[in-house]
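Appendix B, example 12.
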Amino acid sequence: MASDVSICTQALGLLGKPGITALTDGSPAAVKCSQFYTDTLDEVLRAHEWNFATTRVQLVQDFLGTPVYGYDYAYGKPADCVKLIKVARTGYELDNDALPAISYKLEGNLILANEEELFCKYIVRVTDAGLFDSLFSFAFAAALAPKLAGAFNLGLKITQNMVQLAEYALANAKKIDNMESGTPQRRVNSSWLDAR
């Protein structure tokens, strides 16, 4: 099971550096890992629609944020949302790619739309590394490595090698994650739905 320490230790190991005991252990490596950890986590979470980090909710209207023009309603973006995947009128529509998309706009922490009810699917900021998929954990460690290489002044060649490794690890993790995503729902042809 992954932890913030194991991910940072793996990233440091890719650079031939010893691991850390905690992000707060005061060592130069821990200080550098702490500096890049959260932003890199968000970057890797935003890079894909990860199965382990995807959730769906019905949004709550934000009456104070109602737009002056352009849209009729404002909804609060979930506080733990790293990446908005889809917005829909119903929960069913979140997975049905055959249905037409609705018009909405993300502005700051508000989602603006002309719908009285709104549902969304999004990527959650997962902070418990124990919940990470194993391939995601490696992709995350690989994404930390080039930043740490730069911080340790290990040279352009090592940094470039780590960038290439990070790209490979991310592509591999995305590929496997996609294979486990299931199949999207398809619209069933229905004269009742067409008439609606």
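Helices lie at 4-14, 28-46, 134-151, 156-179, 191-195. Confidence is low (pLDDT under 50) at residues 187-196.
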